[in-house]
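Regression test attached.
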Amino acid sequence: MEAKQTILVVDDDKSIVELLRDFLENEGFSVKIAHDAKRALVVLEENAIHALILDIMMPGQSGFELCRQIRAESDVPILFLSARSDDIDKIRGLALGGDDYIVKTASPGEIVARVKAVLRRSHSQPKRNVIDYDRLTLDLSTREVLLDGQSVSLTPKEYDLLRLFAEHPKHVFTYEQLLERFWEGVGDKHTVRVQLSRLREKIEPNPNAPQFIKNVWGIGYCFKGE
Amino acid sequence: MEAKQTILVVDDDKSIVELLRDFLENEGFSVKIAHDAKRALVVLEENAIHALILDIMMPGQSGFELCRQIRAESDVPILFLSARSDDIDKIRGLALGGDDYIVKTASPGEIVARVKAVLRRSHSQPKRNVIDYDRLTLDLSTREVLLDGQSVSLTPKEYDLLRLFAEHPKHVFTYEQLLERFWEGVGDKHTVRVQLSRLREKIEPNPNAPQFIKNVWGIGYCFKGE
DNA sequence: CAAAAAAGTCACAAAACGATCACAACATTT
DNA sequence: AAATGTTGTGATCGTTTTGTGACTTTTTTG
């Protein structure tokens, strides 16, 4: 007794778009098409879109940039589409807010399954804006951070960093990725270290033996959520 | 049923580039051009490239060096292009990460066939980010290494070495190749031995009788994955 | 079997890396 | 404009990693 769900497919490659449209319509989805980022935003505005499939590589504005723009306003599930699966590690590292990642060579069945999976997730969990670990809690809507129930006041950069880490536990972020994301690519590893040192000072029960933000030698940092 | 694949051709010789472009476009590939290494990296960054054709001899940075740089971040198939066929023997075994080698005098048909072959190979193996042997597991995205399920902490160099070996089981790497790849060509065989000794200490169940990294007398080392 | 060459191990020093402090530059608020 | 808070840079110190030399063990060869 469900209404038809609408998926927006964004890719400049028409053959891929057609392919995906076939798969998805066969499974009972309604499909909208956009061939570039600008058009995608328009379609998104004018239709009730339940999920997006987004090509990373597109002429003009990239899928990355588009994702960021969409995320600024909406939490609609986004699936990234990439030609090469080794891109996917890089994308995960960038933590752009994609909900899943598909390789273009994936089978029709797999693609449809992934789409259904993110839809299921987004339905059952109508947006969680609190990240909760044993002792540490982030409220994403108010930017409030609690350590053992006590409010901790973080600067903007500290909070943004912590949020990225807390949203991706166990993932190793390289210095380069962090610089890319928080310092527009210009800057020094040292800057990252100092910033994280200050963050630890505030959120680590014992900053000398960090529990949450761990260093990975020669590479970068990683968040451990128990 | 497949999307257009994009090939990046890197060669300073414009006539060769044009020739290759014609061949490949005739076969339905999309072709990008770069005349030097620097430009190639930019193009690679900005486009979804499915394979590279790389001239070995180029002014400035050589094809070797470029290949190494690319391999540091990606597993995109690389075909080397050389004027003389006797160069090619030298290149093979250098373990630079090239996937095939073409002589410049090869026929259009052969070149296209080679390109298609590497593409097929790279597709059928959708690039795993976990390398799994019976007792040893590498997670390429988190750089985590497990021995019998137990986490092993490796230094950056140890991990990089292990990864190379684990990715190319049964392949014999000479001291020279290892020095070339991990020590920028400067260094001593002794350094390699010590480094591998330390690595064995950590990953070999019995370091006195190595199971994974075996020595090849007088030549170098080799990884046995059962 | 002995000598030579290659490989392995250990210990120590040099180099690279990470954490922290202090201070200056910059932005924000009042 | 002063006060306050935030962020980047330089200096310093402790830690981890890595290269080198001395020494031992193993393998090859005559």
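Expected vs. actual: identical. Helices of chain B lie at 14-26, 37-46, 63-71, 85-91, 108-124, 156-167, 175-182, 189-203.
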